[in-house]
Each structure stands twice: as structure tokens, then as C-alpha cells.
Design brief:
Elements (H helix, E strand, L loop, with lengths): L8 E7 L4 E7 L6 E4 L3 H14 L2 E8 L7 H19 L8 E8 L2 E8 L5 E5 L8 E2 L2 E2 H15 L2 E7 L5 H20 L17
Helix pairs in contact: 1-4, 2-3
This protein binds manganese (II) ion (MN).
Length: about 200
């Protein structure tokens, strides 16, 4: 029988020629975070994500090639965030596995649907004009890259729908990251009725 680690905590470090990133996570936290990424708006969004998901997250980008642009750093943070969740969840004993949440801000709302299935898949749907929108050095395209990296390194099926989007990208991003925190909190919650791995295959890898 698989047993979950007592504490669902992990530390993950990743060094490449482009970036050096460290993340420390407590899945069963209180929503406290310290996020230093060199991408101001992403710091703010990951703080919101941690707060609403009740995750304790310290994430530091020690080295970044943001003199080029944020492309590598943004993607690599997504990879590290996915890996630290994967490590902390270990064999995924007794987790709910599925999560669905929606979060509004003004007229905009986002729906996030997640299944920690072991298979990485990501799709984002929004209005076409929004993809090209750039604000505060960030865009929906960067958001897509970030979430795709996250979903693949966690091994999760992640669907994000941005609805009725207003003009402000900051507002739009908040609805996505809040809903992601809420949905991932559901999916990672332990259900005491579930004895073992929540898959008919008997394994989630
Ligand atoms: Mn804000």
C-alpha cells in the first residue's frame, strides 16, 4: 500500500545556462509566500495564487537572462513550480485529483479545470484580440507559455477559459491566478475516504 509522506513539502532547484530558480513549497500551508522572480507582475500573481490556494511558497530566481526578455525566465518558473508541486505530492495518495474553480474581477472571469492525472496537457481559450495584448511587460502569450510549462512539469491536464475579458491585463491575470490557486487547492486536498492512489490504474506518475 502506498503511503503519503507525512508533510507534503518539497524543495526543487533548477539551473540552466539561462536561469537559476529555487522553489520551496508546503502544499498544506497558510497562503504565505515570498516570490522574487525579476518579473514584477508575475511576483504579484504568484502571491495571489499561493494566498488563495493556501500554499506556502518561496520562489527565488537567482539568475535570469531578462536582459534579452522574460521568455526563458517566465517559462522556467512555470517548470519549477510544476516540479515542486509534483515532488511535494509524491505518489498523490488520497488526493482529490480533480479541481474546478472560477474567479471574477469586475466583468472578467476565468474558469480553471485541472486533473492531476500524470499526463501533461494544456489549453487556454480566450477572445482572439487578447492574445496580442501586452501590458507591464507581460501578455496572454506569456501566460500561455507559463501555464503550459507548469501543466507539463506537474503532469496535469489544465484547461483555462478567460471569459468576458475587460481592457486591463492585470485584472484578467488576477482572475486566472486566483482560479488556479482555488482549483489546485481542491485537486491537492486529501479525501480521507480515498484509500490509496486516486486512479483505477493504481498509479499516477
Ligand atoms: Mn492586483
Amino acid at each position: 500500500m502506498f503511503k503519503q509522506k507525512k508533510e507534503r513539502k518539497a524543495k526543487f532547484e533548477r539551473k540552466s545556462t539561462e536561469t537559476e530558480i529555487t522553489a520551496e513549497l508546503n502544499v498544506d500551508g497558510q497562503g504565505k509566500s515570498n516570490v522574487q522572480t525579476h518579473i514584477g507582475i508575475l511576483n504579484h500573481m504568484l502571491e495571489l495564487f499561493s494566498f488563495h490556494g493556501l500554499f506556502d511558497l518561496n520562489l527565488t530566481v537567482a539568475k535570469a537572462d531578462t536582459d534579452i526578455d522574460i521568455h526563458h525566465t517566465n517559462e522556467d518558473i512555470g517548470i519549477v513550480l510544476g516540479k515542486v508541486f509534483k515532488k511535494a505530492l509524491d505518489k498523490k495518495v488520497s488526493i482529490r485529483r480533480f479541481g474546478f474553480a472560477a474567479a471574477p474581477m469586475e466583468e472578467t472571469f476565468s474558469e480553471v479545470i485541472i486533473d492531476i492525472s500524470g499526463r501533461g496537457y494544456f489549453t487556454l481559450k480566450t477572445e482572439e484580440g487578447l492574445i496580442a495584448k501586452m501590458q507591464d511587460g507581460y501578455s496572454i502569450t506569456y501566460l500561455e507559455h507559463f501555464l503550459e510549462s507548469f501543466a507539463h512539469s506537474l503532469g496535469a491536464n489544465l484547461i483555462v477559459n478567460i471569459k468576458n475579458a475587460g481592457e486591463d491585463l492585470h485584472t484578467i491575470l488576477e482572475t486566472v491566478f486566483k482560479a488556479l490557486g482555488l482549483a489546485l487547492d481542491q485537486a491537492t486536498t486529501v479525501d480521507a475516504r480515498r484509500d490509496g492512489i486516486p486512479s483505477t490504474k493504481g498509479i499516477i506518475d
